[in-house]
Amino acid sequence: MTFEAYMNNIRAKTAKGPKEFFDEAVSAGVLRPDTKTMEFVAWLKGHAGLGHGHAMAVWEAFKRHGWVPLPEPGAKR
């Protein structure tokens, strides 16, 4: 399965894309400068009902967009 197919399946299941998950994770305090990959993946699996591979694909989308790691508070990006 391609990365794009993963993202299409995620959107079909949840009606959300990476940006919506990013905003939710930041608002929930799950996504911080020190957040570990598996901490986020566990949260997303429980929050959105995604499987491990699909949750990892969302994390990869964050990385591809330069959204993780988050900068420390007050740091310039």
Characteristic key phrases:
77 residues, mainly alpha, 4 helices, globular
Could you explain how this protein is built, in words?
This protein is an all-alpha fold. Helix content is 62%, strand content 0%. It has helices at 3-14, 18-27, 37-48, 52-65. Helix 1 (3-14) packs across helix 4 and helix 3 crosses helix 4 (52-65). The termini are far apart.
For the sheet with most strands, the description reads: none
Q: What would you report as the Rg, rounded to the nearest angstrom? A: 12 Å
Helix coverage percent: 55-70%
- The span between the termini is 33 Å
Rounded mean pLDDT score: 92
| Unreliable sequence segments | none
Discrete helix count: 4
Helix and strand sequence:
HHHH
